[in-house]
From TrEMBL:
Cofactors demanded by this protein: Mg(2+); Mn(2+)
Gene designation: ligA
Keyword Aminoacyl-tRNA synthetase: no
Active-site residue list: K129 (n6-amp-lysine intermediate)
A molecular function (GO) term: DNA ligase (NAD+) activity
Signal peptide annotation: none
Name under which the protein is recorded: DNA ligase
Record key words, sorted: DNA damage, DNA repair, DNA replication, Ligase, Magnesium, Manganese, Metal-binding, NAD, Zinc
EC class of the enzyme, as a word: ligase
Binding site for NAD(+): D44, A45, D46, Y47, D48, S93, L94, E127, R150, E186, K302, K326
Organism listed in the record: Neorhizobium petrolearium
Amino acid sequence: MSVEKTPVEDLTEEQAAAELAYLAAEIARHDELYHGHDAPEISDADYDALKRRNDAIEKRFPKLIRADSPSIRVGAAPLPTFAPITHARPMLSLDNTFSDDDVRDFVNSVYRFLGQLPDGSIAFTAEPKIDGLSMSIRYEHGRLVNAATRGDGTTGENVTENIRTIKEIPNRLPTGVPDVIEVRGEVYMRKSDFLALNAQMEAEGKQTYVNPRNTAAGSLRQLDARVTASRNLKFFAYAWGEMSEMPADTQMGMVEKFKEWGFPVNPLMKRLNSVDDIIDHYKQIGLKRPDLDYEIDGVVYKVDRLDLQGRLGFRSRSPRWATAHKFPAEQAFTRVERIDIQVGRTGALTPVARLTPVTVGGVVVTNATLHNEDYIKGIGNSGERIREEEHDIRIGDTVIVQRAGDVIPQVLDVVMEKRPPDAVPYEFPKKCPVCGSHAVREEGESVRRCTGGLICSAQQIERLRHFVSRDAFDIEGFGDQYVELFFAAGLLKTPADVFRLHLHSDEVKKAILEYRELLQREREERTGKRRKKVSAEDSRSFEGVDKLFASIDKRRHISFERLLFGLGIRHIGEVTAKALARRYNKPLDFLAAIIAAADGRPGSAWHILSSVDGIGGVTRDALIASVGSSAPAGFGLSHESWLSGVGLNKKQKQNLLSRFGDAEGVYRVVLAASKGAPNPAYKDLANQKDVGEVAADALIDFVTETHNREAVDDLLSYLDVFFDQPASSSSELSGKTVVFTGNLEKMTRNEAKATAERLGARVSGSVSGKTDLVIAGPGAGSKLADAQKHGVKIITEDEWLSLIE
Ligand SMILES: NC(=O)c1ccc[n+]([C@@H]2O[C@H](COP(=O)([O-])OP(=O)(O)OC[C@H]3O[C@@H](n4cnc5c(N)ncnc54)[C@H](O)[C@@H]3O)[C@@H](O)[C@H]2O)c1
Ligand SMILES: [Zn+2]
């Protein structure tokens, strides 16, 4: 998704520096994902756009070029899993060109650099840019001695054993080959092999691969060379590293030699002089692209004569004598058969278009994400149009999909001429397709979310993890694995199930045992070693289970604020939970307050009116009051004179008129707002410190969902909820600011903090003149020194404990 960016010419130096820092980190991250892990997060086109932005900023602010700039780095550091190999000559990247003009510029720059007129006398080779993984293979005395990936250009990964499994790559060379040669080229996977592999994965119920490039890279960088062998990888030779002797003096001549020596070379390579011929060859290759059995992402041009290449030399990350002319992102037409809604772990509803399968760049595309309901309508994240009016996406529509590189394809546009006459605008569901709870969309958000957090199976794992976590119910020993394990075993669905686990103690133990066996089997498969079987009688294995039940039991006595926070209601963080717990001191009061507030939840007109610039709460309420007392239209009072009578200043009046058209428009909105104005109960809830409207709305959404109330009632039947006493003002500590530092030995930090707060103290993270007391455990450092400096009283943990007794 594109975000509006400040044009490079408008950036201040400060903004430029900040953006370069961001881009350096972001591009390095994508390099690592792409080159290091063969698992990119963004498309190549998006990645290239980041690089271009970086280059443009650096061009305008050359002083700001960073030492870690992506314009001077290649690839990503080799993985430590493989032994490193330092390349005898660096393996560089290529400069990119995207338009015909860029190609002209490249050719002209070559002539200029060599001090020649662009008279067409210099020959260039043009060959497909294979989308694979570059490799340097070293032969000594005709024998393959090692092979390395590019890595960061200087050091690559030793993958010799894996390379030996590729049949196309000779192990021995014919006689007459120079003593030392390094042949470089691209390892790739054929599209047909890729599709067959995916078909097999699917048949075995396994995860399929995304594209041939990442699959080739992943297949090659395997610790077990047998896996590589099973993948039928291929190779094209097109470059070289160290050569003890040069067998040719042109690029073309070198590639011909490689062919003679038994290496596969690409048949579409040509030698050309004029820019027009070069561009024509690019187009020819582009036309053949869909029929080639390997993926290519452009055409590489290189100066043919090696002596000229030598004079042109290198920039920091690429040769000056070559460039890669990239193809635009690949697109195809297909039909939207269905729109499915997926519910994520946080409850977000994401629409996915199910497409008639279509091949885009060798990859069969069947799905495309539609992001959210606005995207379907053609509206972007900031409310801007991303497609023409009426080009909303409908079931039955023929659409243009783009697979800009590797990630999930996008639907670019709708072909209106092919829209079936009966296609209707897509109606986004208002209910969660997984659990049936209502799905709400918050003001200013594009995402619609399921409110049935506790009972929605799409979200349950996430909620349960949160429920048992440190800051919520704090159940000792209940880690994420247990949550997943018990969930999978059907023992744990809602929070109340946590307190029922001990009733299924045998099943709990069985689940844990099976899990341990699985871990052991995996370990054995990895290491090839067998171990003693874990036995059910092994009592030690289950020591932990009884402990777990004990720590669950301990938490049946729980504070209201932890309970509230533990439910994982959206926007109810610790601070808000605490504020609510302080305000209400019976669960029923709390529930009643929310139900009363639900009836008085303001309508959208009220929100719209509140959002007009310059209209604060007082003015808004005055406007609303005025429509209640005098009804203009019916009593001969014009809308204009009504508006003038409210007592607005000029600016406010202007803003209202420009937002709602005319006085009548303003009147209508105010009237609607008066009907949907918040009631006192809502205001009371939302106006509390640390609560606010967003949290109030989330609470209402949660409580008004029957399923949630049932789940909470169920939970409450196991709990003994206590409400923190309002801070007793008689306590010695009330109103004091305290700081804990060093290691506390008898209580956790959280416990210490909670007790201090219960006694009315404020807990701060740093010592200042305002601090009243520092509790220092062993290992206290700078805070202790600060306390001494400010003359603050310092006590030990034991002294603290006796103080609070
Ligand atoms: N999606 C992402 O997150 C992400 C991240 C990093 C890189 N990338 C993609 O990877 C590429 C950038 O990586 P790069 O630095 O390797 O540059 P590059 O792929 O643009 O060009 C250099 C490489 O081209 C290869 N190549 C293929 N055929 C060739 C031929 N005939 N002659 C010479 N070289 C040939 C070589 O392996 C060489 O190393 C871009 O396509 C970029 O979009 C994507
Ligand atoms: Zn749901």
